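Narrative summary of target 7.
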Amino acid sequence: MTHPHEPDQLRSLFRREFKAEPDVSASAPGRVNIVGEHTDYNGGEVLPIAINRRVHFAARVAPKAAASTVYSSSEPAPGRFDASSPARTGEWSDYIAGVCAELTSRGIHIPQFEAAMVSDVPIGAGLSSSAAVEVAASVALTTLAGRSVELKELAIVSWRAENEFVGVGCGVMDQFASALCQSGRALHLWCDTLATETVRLDEHVLIFDTATPRSLRASEFNARRAECEQALALLRRKFPDLPNLAAATPRQIEDAGLPSVPRRRALHVVNEVARVHTVVDGLKATGRIPGEVLYESHESLRTLFECSTAQLDWFVDRMRGSPGVSGARLTGAGWGGCAIAVGERDHLTAAGEAAAVDYQREFGVKPRIWLTVASDGARVDAA
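Modeled conformation, tokenized:
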């Protein structure tokens, strides 16, 4: 579902700023991960969907301009940079400049351009608004340059833009989901090989943003990565051919005699990969998520990976007793941010609205909630 006002708002912004029509417009969605948390940077598997909210990006060639200009409906000032040789500025437009830098490094000449961008992907909720910006820009700008590039390649371009240009060390899931997801299907991604398949998903997903500060997130996230690296190093002393942590087995973890903390982190990762397999098998059989697996995932994230919060636990516990809700868990890295519940649309709507009222009473913060279905990935909307 595209919210109908977004393309209209995009055209209006473009005409207002440039007194012209765009040559191309493209769009890409945010994402939410159904299961497979903290597995991506450990070589494991993930199962995201695209949500029904998108970044819309329109552009036209500006041959006489000395620099490229991008306006965003959510930013007070435009971004400006040299599309053929962009430099990092620390501004929001780095996400687009980074795409230009990566495309240029691959021999794709991006002409100077004028662009406008609008989005209804919530910012700061862990729904990958930055990946949606990168993927939408990469689709639009390669089209503008007259080049046909596969969406998987543009997902890699976008991921490298965020890692190497912007400087955020994310895994590949966000950009792959934004580029490659399909309506009514979840994306099963192997993060070590970048192989993908899509699997049918018929249910609705409720996204519940706890709206809590995540000040500890960066430091805790880095600590967990280090603990996972430590676990792998210790496992390799006994099993030197182990390619990554996700490839270990629970028996190997026990046999290696890991200390308590790396043992817990490793057990979460290997069991979470098994949960991805269970959910994928359930979807292939019925199009529905075996919800108990989501509760198991949350409990593992809470106790073994220790990345939950009282607010996330409250929501998951609340959903467990709600009619028509089959499963729930935190999603994203944790330490705040979002949780999801899956099930029937009307039941999810009722459960989410009631939970929001009680949550605000309990925690003094108003949560944000969205209902989504598995939606389409990136596309050219007009050229």
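The two ends are 20 Å apart (CA to CA).
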